Amino acid sequence: MKAAAEVQNPAKPLIIPIFIMNGGCPQHCIFCNEKIAAGDFAPEIIRSFFDAEVASYLRWNKDKRRRVEIAFYGGNFTGLAIDYQKRLLSWADTYLQTGQADSIRISTRPDYIDDNHLAFLHAAGVRTVEIGAQSFNDDVLRTANRGHDGQATIRAMQLLKARGFQAGLHLMAGLPGDTRESFMETLLRTAELRPDTARIHPVLVFKDTPLAYEYRLGRYQPLSLTEAVKWCHLAWETLTPAGIHIIRFGLQMTSEMHQEGAVPAGPMHPAFGSLVYSAIFFSYTLRLLRDVPKHTGVLHFSVAQRDLSNFRGPGNKNVDAIKKLYPDARIVIDSVREGLLGHLSLNTETEESLSLDIPGIA
């Protein structure tokens, strides 16, 4: 499962994901089919599997300077039987004790967090807790059968901050009953709470879920791919000024998602995050060009090498759009090997030099 790790940027920690497959979940959310979303893992983790997964990632990691975090994902960790929690955390702790890992992170529900449990988690080496908030709109949460309200997430975030945890929020775009306006309200509430990180997933319709049933009856329509990119772009514009680092757009693709009929509808794309970042880069490129005359003969851009594909856009879409805006210009794009991520610079034929930095690109 190498593809599931946060591995593209050396500045990011290496996250080793261990999926607990709906473990501890008291609800059956209408959108959830974890065997497709995360992969078809065993319902209970055994030690040999755990050690093999961790060893696989540690062997693969070439940058030994990176922080290593063991993560328990795919369920409601704090809803697991306490003995099972202790067992999993003790296995992870062996890697902390040997210096092969630096900390542990978990994902859980907002209504399964209290002060006593957080004290237990911190003592066991957990330093990051990701909360499945999904939305702050109570009607949307109720329709999704989440079993908690938006206030539960607010309380959970307050407890996490009081205990000194790194906190992340998972949000979903396009849930039943969600609108652009209600999604924006969720983003604004998230910005107020200031989690350290956020993940934004547009809703996919998985087979064998209540949502798939609603879709077949014509009672639910997921976001189009274009709409999903726009909503996630809106999330970027709202959350990054608040200092919130968005660590993923869209679900990580699994082999199960590619199976025929597994995802009957929804904005699924193998590089969804790149589509969002390409839209972000294009919007900032337009800002850079705002005062450049349309008759300009040369547009000479410089971007970091690792930003080049996002700057160009899928199929060179962004560059083609610039050509339409500046039909007389010769467009030159230099990629800078050690360039600062998110930094765009532009020189024109008049030797005018412009630059800007896209916040949150790292």
Question: In words, what does this structure look like?
Answer:
- With 362 residues, the protein is α/β, with parallel strands linked by helices.
- It folds into two domains: 2-269, Alpha-Beta Barrel (TIM Barrel), CATH 3.20.20; 278-357, Hypothetical Protein Ychn, Chain: A (3-Layer(aba) Sandwich).
- The protein is built from twelve helices and eleven strands.
- The strands form two sheets. The chain has a seven-stranded parallel beta sheet.
- α7 packs parallel to α9.
- The model is unreliable at 1-10 (pLDDT under 50).
In short:
With 362 residues, the chain is an alpha/beta fold. Helix content is 36%, strand content 20%. It has 2 domains: 2-269, Aldolase class I (TIM Barrel); 278-357, Ribonuclease E, catalytic domain (Hypothetical Protein Ychn, Chain: A, 3-Layer(aba) Sandwich).
SSE map:
Layout lengths: L13 E6 L14 H4 L9 H14 L7 E6 L8 H16 L5 E6 L6 H9 L2 E9 L3 H6 L6 H14 L2 E8 L6 H14 L3 E6 L7 H7 L8 H15 L5 E5 L22 H17 L9 E7 L3 H5 L4 H9 L4 E7 L6 E6 L4 E5 L5
Parallel strand pairs: 1-2, 2-3, 3-4, 4-5, 5-6, 6-7, 8-9
Antiparallel strand pairs: 8-10, 10-11
Helix pairs in contact: 7-9, 9-10
Average pLDDT metric: 92
Number of domains: 2
Identify low-pLDDT runs: 1-10
How many β-strand runs? 11
Tell me what portion of residues adopts beta-strand conformation. Answer: 15-25%
Q: Examine the secondary-structure arrangement and name the CATH architecture of the largest domain.
A: Alpha-Beta Barrel
What value does the Rg take, in angstroms? 22 Å
The coarse silhouette is globular
* Topology-level CATH name of the largest domain: TIM Barrel
> What's the CATH H-level superfamily name of the largest domain?
Aldolase class I
Strand order of the largest sheet: 1-2-3-4-5-6-7
CATH class of the largest domain: Alpha Beta
- How many helices? 12
What's the helical proportion of residues? 25-40%
Span between N and C termini?
24 Å
Structure classification: alpha/beta
For the largest beta-sheet, the strand count, sense and barrel status come to:
7 strands, parallel
